[in-house]
Amino acid sequence: MPPKPHRVLLDRVSGYADEAAAYMRRRRASRRPFARLYYRGGRAEDLAGDSAAGGELFVAAGRLIEVAGKRR
Amino acid sequence: MPDDAATGVVPGDAAAGALAYLAEMSLDLRGAAILDAEGEVLAASDRPERWREDAATLFEVADRAGGEPVEQVHIGTEQGEVFALRHGGLAAVVVTERFALASLTFFDMRAVLRDLAAAKPLPTLKGPEARKSRKRSPNGEGNAA
C-alpha cells in the first residue's frame, strides 16, 4: 500500500532538516578562529592567526571577550 | 578612533539607551560599548575604562594591519566573537557568543549608531509580553509582531 501523501511530505521535510542539522554540526566542529577586516568600498581582508597583525588582533579580541565576561 | 564623519555631541543617556536596545535586539550579546569620536566611552555594559583601552587597541591594530582605517572588524575565537564598527563618527564594539550571525549583528550595530549620530530617538523597546507574542507558538500562531 502506498504511503499517505502527507507522510511523503513530512519525510521529505524531515530529511531536509536532518541535512541542515548535520551541516550545522560540521560547521561548528570545523570552524577555526578567524579575523576579518572590512574597509570602505567593500574591500575585505582575512588575517591569519599566525601572522603578526593577526596575532595582535586575537590578543585584543581576547581582552575584549574577557572584559565582556559570560553571558548574563 | 571612529571614522571622521563625526556629528554633534551624543549624550551619555542616549548612548546607554542605544546599548540597552542593542542588548535587546541581539540575544547572543555578552557585552558592548559605544564610543565617541575621541574614543571615549559613551556607554558600556561594564567597566568602561577597560572597554575604552581594549577598543582603542583593537582599532589601532586593525588600522595598522590594513594600512587604512577599518570600517568593520569581525574576530571569531573559541571563547566568543568580537564585532567592531565605525559609523557616523561613532564606534560600537560588541562581544557575543560563538556563531552569532555576523550580518545581523552588524546590521543592528549600524542601525543603532546611525540613529545615535542623527540624534534620532530609538524605537520604543517592547516589554516582555510583547516580545513573547513575537515568538512562534507550537501551533504556528502568535508570530505577528
Could you walk me through the main structural features you see in this protein, from its secondary elements to its overall organization?
The complex is a heterodimer of chains A (72) and B (145). By secondary structure, chain A is an alpha+beta fold. Chain A has two domains: 1-31; 33-72, no CATH class. Chain A has helices spanning 5-30, 52-68, and strands at residues 34-38, 44-47. Chain A has a two-stranded antiparallel sheet with strand order 1-2. In chain A, strand 1 and strand 2 form a beta hairpin. Chain A starts with a helix and ends with a helix. The mean pLDDT of chain A is 87. Chain B is of the alpha+beta class and 145 residues long. Chain B has one domain: Dynein light chain 2a, cytoplasmic (Beta-Lactamase). Helix content of chain B is 39%, strand content 21%. Chain B has four helices and five strands; from the N terminus they run αββαβββαα. A five-stranded antiparallel beta sheet of chain B has the order 2-1-5-4-3. In chain B, strand 1 and strand 2 form a beta hairpin. In chain B, helix 1 (12-25) packs antiparallel against helix 3. The model of chain B is unreliable at 124-145 (pLDDT under 50). The chains are: A alpha+beta (72), B alpha+beta (145). Chain A binds chain B through residues 28, 31, 33-40, 45, 47, 53-54, 56-58, 60-65, 67-72, and chain B through 28-32, 45-47, 50-51, 54-55, 57-58, 61-62, 64-66, 68-80, 82, 93, 95, 97, 99.
